[in-house]
Design a protein that fits this description.
Elements lengths: L1 H13 L1 H29 L5 H7 L20
Length: 76
């Protein structure tokens, strides 16, 4: 933690000209990793058929064994 804080202090005090480039790099990496995470989750996530979605997916059929989890008991 101290090393992390030291890097921030050094960059803010001695390397102001590099700070803009480092912030831009961090922002671009942040957006790229967000997109990569969303794409990975979308591609590898389980899929349901259209028939299940439009005919069988009502409240209470979540598959959870605990009634405290949104099971339709509280929505009827």
């Amino acid at each position: 933690m101290w090393a992390y804080l030291a890097v921030c202090v050094i960059l803010n005090v001695y390397a102001r000209k590099l700070l803009v480039a480092i912030e831009m790099f961090g922002g671009i990496i942040h957006i790229a990793f967000f997109v990569a995470t969303v794409v990975t989750l979308a591609v590898m996530g389980p899929r349901s058929s259209a028939e299940f979605v439009f005919t069988e997916s009502f409240f209470g059929l979540s598959g959870w064994s605990n009634d405290g989890v949104l099971t339709g008991k509280y929505f009827q």
